[in-house]
DNA sequence: CATAGGATCGCCT
DNA sequence: GGCGATCCTATGT
């Protein structure tokens, strides 16, 4: 039951961090409502050399600027005009590495999550897919730039952070493969930067 | 200023 | 498995 510290995100190893994030808890408090889930699937985006990354070639734009912040910062952007995709920036300031959270296993706040998706029953896609993760967690792209290493005070009504609650990901059960939806990245689309595990 | 396209999803067939 | 939704972002003139 401990907040994941800044140092976890500062390593120059976005692929390793992606793997290590499996089993960690993603927690949000939005308007005072707590929801959380265990991270089950991630993808690494390895900075300026990675053709699949928004920061490929050192591109700096209003949207991608937060990717250049220090590790432990949230990079959240709007995809296809509809979906907020949640990423965790890693490495030191000015090194735009990030990890996309692709799925979680919901743990706390089922009622609130269901309300957010306008459903009354949990379906097969619940928590599966980066757009769905943000939707049920109440994470909006306007929250990009948020410091994920800061757990909110009891009185705060907003916060997004990660905790290690002792759930271990068995290395032998981790499935590794190429990233989804990045065919435009040529050879880089084949890199084994996607990690998933069932909890 | 105009325009094409996207690290997706859910519904329809 | 095919497609429309939906709007911000990046890029070009």
Task: Explain how this protein is built.
This protein is of the alpha+beta class. It is built from four helices and nine strands. The protein is globular. Strands 1, 2, 3, 4, 5, 6, 7, 8 and 9 form a nine-stranded antiparallel sheet that branches. The structure holds a DNA duplex (13 and 13 nucleotides).
* Series of secondary-structure elements, N-terminal to C-terminal: EHHEEEEEHHEEE
Helix residue percentage: 10-25%
Average predicted local confidence, pLDDT: 97
What overall geometry do the principal axes of the alpha carbons give?
Answer: globular
What structural category arises from helix and sheet content? alpha+beta
Using the CA coordinates, give the radius of gyration: 16 Å
Provide the low-confidence segments as ranges.
Answer: none
The major β-sheet equals:
9 strands, antiparallel
End-to-end C-alpha gap = 18 Å
Share of residues in strands: 25-35%
Q: What is the number of E strands?
A: 9
- Total helix count? 4
Structure, briefly:
The protein has helices at residues 6-10, 14-20, 110-117, 130-137, and strands at residues 2-3, 25-30, 33-46, 74-79, 83-90, 97-108, 158-164, 175-177, 194-196. It is an alpha+beta fold and 199 residues long.
Keywords:
single chain, 199 residues, 4 helices, DNA-binding, globular, alpha+beta
């Amino acid at each position: 039951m401990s907040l994941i510290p800044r140092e976890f995100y500062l390593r120059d190893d976005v692929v390793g961090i992606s793997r290590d994030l499996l089993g960690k808890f993603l927690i949000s408090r939005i308007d005072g409502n707590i929801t959380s889930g265990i991270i089950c699937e991630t993808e690494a985006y390895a900075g300026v050399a990675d053709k699949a990354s928004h920061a490929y070639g050192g591109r700096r734009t209003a949207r991608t600027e937060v990717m250049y912040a220090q590790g432990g910062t949230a990079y959240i952007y709007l995809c296809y005009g509809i979906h907020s995709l949640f990423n965790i920036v890693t490495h030191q300031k000015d090194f735009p590495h990030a990890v996309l959270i692709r799925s979680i296993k919901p743990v706390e706040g089922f009622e609130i999550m269901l309300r957010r998706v306008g459903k009354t029953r949990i379906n097969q896609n619940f928590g599966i897919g980066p757009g769905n993760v943000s939707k049920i967690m109440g994470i909006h792209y306007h929250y990009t730039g948020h410091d994920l290493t800061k757990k909110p005070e009891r009185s705060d009504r907003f916060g997004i952070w990660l905790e290690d609650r002792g759930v271990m990901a068995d290395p032998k059960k981790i499935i590794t493969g190429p990233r989804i939806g990045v065919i435009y990245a040529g050879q880089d689309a084949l890199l084994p930067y996607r990690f998933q595990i069932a909890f």
